[in-house]
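Running this now, will post back.
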Amino acid sequence: MNDEPASAPQRFAAIVLAADRTNKDPITRYTGAACKAFAPVGSIPMVIRVLDSLAACDQISTIVLCGPPQALHTQCPELEQRIAAGRIVWLPNLNSPSRSAESCLDQIPSNLPVLLTTADHALLTPAIVQDFLRKSSATPAEATVGTIEQQRIAEAFPRSKRTVIRLRDGGFCGCNLFTFQPRGRTLVRFWRQAEDLRKRPWRLIAQVLGWQTVLSYLCGRLTLQHALAAISQKSGVDIEAIVLDDPRAGVDVDKIEDLQLAETILNDQPSQRC
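Update: finished.
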């Protein structure tokens, strides 16, 4: 019998990206909210839903919110109170997601692993976060990315229209969940370089994936594991996919249809908040 005490779960600092980049955002215009992050879902601002789910996780030690602009905080008194009380750390966003993430990482001790998510993840629950962090901590990878099989979302929410990456081993949707171990933080710089090339798609493809990987994709031979291996090789960071089970993990709120779907899910499944 092993009498050694079980090691404590790894604790993470959490970054929530909540920039308000345009007044033309369809969610902002539809709801009349001061910014997208403040748009109500089930009468609760999206950003508050995300912050609540993170705060309920023992594995989260610190929460850093990047954006929205300080001038808008009075439009969300609950957020304003949490910042004033020191329950979350607020930092201004920069002009792109990767630069905002990099700015936040600079304020977090370099020895801490980090969880990154977004303020529009309105259906995020403590259970989803805990599952993702537990599985991420169990891998030797330096960075992890949350994903879910598209079929799971389609079966649970037939009306949902998600962006799908179709690979040899199935269709996958992103979950806006990432972790970075201390050595994995350099992946954010690689992400920034990719953002800088977004208007030059062929150079972007060559830098992020490489032509051999692209050819495999076009021929229907590329798997999720091989795709991440290619990015790992290009970035110098060992990346692993964490395939989640809860279909809500793959639903973020970018379009009015997403907002309506999230409202329907919350109304139909109130007991699944945790």
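The longest helix spans residues 256-268. More later if anyone needs it.
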